[in-house]
Amino acid sequence: xxxxxxxxxxxxxxxxxxxxxxxxxxxxxxxxxxxxxxxxxxxxxxxxxxxxxxxxxxxxxxxxxxxxxxxxxxxxxxxxxxxxxxxxxxxxxxxxxxxxxxxxxxxxxxxxxxxxxxxxxxxxxxxxxxxxxxxxxxxxxxxxxxxxxxxxxxxxxxxxxxxxxxxxxxxxxxxxxxxxxxxxxxxxxxxxxxxxxxxxxxxxxxxxxxxxxxxxxxxxxxxxx
Length: 225
Fold this sequence. Notes:
The chain is α+β, with helices and mostly antiparallel strands. It has helices at about 15-25, 50-55, 120, 190-195, 195-225; strands spanning about 5-10, 30-35, 40-45, 65-70, 75-85, 90-100, 105-115, 125-130, 135-140, 145-150, 160, 170-175, 180-185. The chain has two domains: about 5-100, CATH 2.40.240.10; about 105-185, RNA Polymerase Alpha Subunit, Chain A, domain 2.
């Protein structure tokens, strides 16, 4: 189950990039809550320090929170997106979506590979992660922060698909089951390494054919003489 954090926020009336910069200089982060009513976003602001501390307690940002605005009762909300400054890494904006604990929701969940594949440790292969998240549907109380995929049994050339993932009860995967999640590719053989040289030899063949034609042309000229 996704851990629940608590976010204390206040409503804000100012908008625009200049106003957002002023808020950040005061240690606040602009936020938006998309309500269940739809088509309406409540503009909020919250302490950057408290948000940073909350996010550090979670492996991912896929978090269900109790959003407390002023003296109103808490609202259950999903942290849908946390935007960071590309240079400093500081939080610059958060988007929350209000949810009902009795209605199923859809959300992407990260896939984390665990274990060392036999094809890597014994066969010298290379582990490749083909898919980093899957789309799931569940009740908010069944949401998880990440899906662990055990790849230790994969041999050379073996692939782990979405259908192979082990999920807790109540979680339905919407991503197609035949999509690959991880693959152990075989090491490059010496024969494959020689392919460019073989190609170069093939390209040289027209020159030999051309040389033969030149000899024929010379003989024909001699006969005419």
